[in-house]
Amino acid sequence: MRMRAPLALTVAAALAIVAGATPAAAADDPDPRPQRPPIATPGPVPDKPPAAGAVSKEDLPAGFASWEAMFDEQNRLNDIADRIIAAGGAGYAGLIVDPTLHDVRLYWKGALPDAVARAVDTGRATAPVRVYQADYTDEELRAEAARWIASGLVSDAYPEADGSGVTVEVAGPASAGAPQLPGGARTTYSMKYGEGPVVPLEGESATASTFYRQQDTSPYWGGAQFRRPGGWVCTTGFAVTDNEGYPGMLTAGHCGTPGEQITTSSGPQNPIGQVWWDWDYQDIALIWIYSDVQGRVYTGPWNSSYGRSINSAKTNYVGNYVCVNGATSGEHCAVKVYYVSPSDVTVKAERTKNGACAVAHGDSGGPVISQSTGAAFGYGIISAGQSSVDTCEAGPFGANDGYHKVHFKGLKFALNHFGATLRTYPYY
């Protein structure tokens, strides 16, 4: 059975809950929902400091002076990849957009359709676009990966972006031998050993007196801790306006159920809003915020009081780097994407440094971004962790345990599903 788990649990339960099964149903929570009061016109509120704070150069790839410079290069290459994807056509195997290589690599089985060839030629006017023949299409490899997952013998399986085969992850050591797929493998595959199940992350709430990641105030930012009934905590994702015009915040689907009120870490006397809509199968949720939100996210360590303005939502590509922002473990920018599902629904990434922390308990729902000069771009919403480590900074719960890999949901996918509009904010 494939195991996955959201990033959320109380400290008392953290040792007992390590994984949960993929939900069996894909239905949204039914309408009608409770009637909400008329949309209020928010009064003046004191603004929070605009300072962005320095981005750590921890594990910064060679050849770049800063993470901002690297993400500027990534954004340039991603724009080319966006045009190639938009062209469509049968035979697509994958794209790798690694800013450290300064090029776009397209893998295709068979001849390029005319529209794709034109997109490639247009892209070559601004950056190298290399086209390679692939052994399999992305569709063929996703079907084979699904067979491995359905076998119950593996922790995970996913297509390689170069169309060469499927990567299969198992929890046991290599000495235990590779599992044998019933009916035999239909494509090439490679094994990765010692890869445990995908795990959920929540944590016990802390208290504070002034605004920062652990105790946000209105207008609320993404990347801050919020508390559920029973003491479970998660992280806010991105500020939005929902499809009915109300202020909202995206987060992970396992971080609440519709109608459940959420608060700051100080408890029920400081309500933020309530979970309004969720899709548990895809692990995304929309919170109705009672007061107001702002298109900014906290960045930096777990106890920071600064952040960045959000510019827009971006598409994920294999080879991209992202910054993962959770209220428990803080910000980690040396996180590299190794898998993107069709339509940018599910993305998998890992720290580039072996054994380093990407996420910890309590980070579920947090924003995944890139930091460009003056602003940030949204990429996704933290869903789960995998491959346990004990190298996380001791944040609000005083624990160092966390995960080397992170699974997140594409931001564009979540916005489209809820019919929500991303809140942005001026940047300098």
TrEMBL record:
Residues 1-26 form the signal peptide. Pfam families: Trypsin. InterPro entries: Pept_S1A_streptogrisin, Peptidase_S1_PA, Peptidase_S1_PA_chymotrypsin, Trypsin_dom, TRYPSIN_HIS, TRYPSIN_SER. The lineage of its organism: Bacteria, Bacillati, Actinomycetota, Actinomycetes, Micromonosporales. Belongs to the peptidase S1 family. The keyword Protease applies. Residues 215-387 form the Peptidase S1 domain. Keywords: Disulfide bond, Hydrolase, Protease, Serine protease, Signal. This is Peptidase S1 domain-containing protein. Residues 35-49 have a biased composition (Pro residues). Residues 23-56 are annotated as: Disordered.
